[in-house]
């Protein structure tokens, strides 16, 4: 896959923009499975590092968990004493005009909750359409009213895993596109004092090792809940995992990249930073409160 690296000094992530317009897919068959995977063309990749870094540092995923340091916390450290600011980021921003215009509506503080829910549903559907470009399919035949022709059908189970509670608001948009998808639930909340994740509920479908999994949460802020959610999915057997959010803070992207470098992050926007309370700026407020009116 051809990419064009561009170095900049004032930002600190990897942004890959997916192509739009007529689909340009390269089908490839997965050995021993008969599945076809259509690989999307990536038109550009921008790799950018923190200002104080002159070259990338490769961070291996830690095999141990340190509750005090593992999610970046208030001291900006990761497990093993690695500074959060030293981790290069990998992020896929979906910049389709329809996605961006609906995101603008979600950001607007004057958007009423019924419109917020509608925009969230529509935006999520558009984003899932983009990120499933490489979803595995099985070739086969179909009988039309006139003759038999070739076609494809879903090749593996698709599993959606929303992080409660705000992640549930993203389900409707996905299920309208893929009503046959399975749904798991993870209840994780962030301790407001420590900003660390606490799991209170987990219910996941079986056979995750054979499934294509999307973990969904509107916000990627400190990254703690996302890291814990992906850990739980992997613990249950999940292997092919993607993370989908509406807006992402640099701090959360780094933390998720550090703990799960094999999990791609898809978002509609990379926002500027977290404030002192751990909220994303400019963000869109508390997604759960705006969805449910609480």
Give me a quick take on this structure:
With about 290 residues, the chain is an alpha/beta fold. It contains six helices and 19 strands.
In terms of topology, how is this protein built?
Blueprint: E1 14-18, E2 25-29, E3 36-40, E4 42-47, E5 91-93, H1 97-107, H2 113-131, E6 137-143, E7 148-154, E8 158-164, H3 171-177, E9 182-183, E10 185-190, E11 197-203, E12 212-216, E13 219-220, H4 224-235, E14 240-244, E15 247-248, H5 250-259, E16 265-267, E17 269-270, E18 273-274, E19 280-281, H6 287-292
Parallel strand pairs: 1-5, 5-16, 8-9, 8-10, 8-12, 12-14, 13-15, 14-16, 15-17
Antiparallel strand pairs: 1-4, 2-3, 6-7, 10-11, 18-19
Helix pairs in contact: 1-2, 2-3
């Amino acid at each position: 896959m051809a990419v064009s690296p561009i170095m900049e000094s004032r930002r600190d992530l990897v942004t890959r923009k997916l192509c739009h317009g007529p689909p340009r897919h390269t089908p490839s068959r997965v050995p021993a499975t008969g599945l076809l995977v259509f690989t999307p063309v990536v038109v550009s990749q921008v790799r950018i590092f923190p200002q104080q870094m002159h070259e990338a540092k490769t961070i291996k995923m830690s095999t141990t968990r340190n509750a005090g340091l593992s999610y970046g916390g208030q001291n900006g450290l990761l497990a093993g004493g690695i500074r959060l600011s030293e981790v290069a980021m990998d992020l896929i921003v979906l910049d389709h005009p329809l996605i961006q215009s609906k995101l603008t509506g979600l950001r607007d503080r004057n958007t009423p909750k019924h419109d917020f829910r509608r925009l969230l549903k529509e935006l999520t559907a558009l984003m899932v359409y983009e990120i499933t470009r490489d979803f595995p399919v099985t070739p086969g035949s179909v009988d039309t009213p006139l003759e038999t022709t070739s076609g494809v059908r879903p090749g593996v189970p698709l599993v959606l895993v929303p992080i409660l509670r705000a992640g549930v608001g993203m389900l409707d948009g996905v299920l309208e596109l893929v009503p046959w998808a399975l749904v798991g639930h993870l209840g994780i909340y962030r301790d407001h004092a420590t900003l660390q994740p606490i799991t209170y509920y987990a219910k996941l479908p079986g056979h995750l090792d054979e499934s294509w999994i999307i973990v969904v949460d509107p916000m990627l802020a400190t990254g703690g809940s996302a890291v814990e959610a992906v850990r739980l999915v992997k613990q249950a057997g999940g292997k092919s995992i993607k993370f989908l959010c509406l807006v992402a803070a640099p701090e959360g992207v780094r933390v998720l990249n550090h703990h799960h470098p094999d999990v791609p992050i898809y978002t509609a926007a990379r926002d500027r930073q977290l404030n002192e309370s751990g909220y994303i700026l400019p963000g869109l407020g508390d997604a759960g409160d705006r969805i449910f009116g609480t």
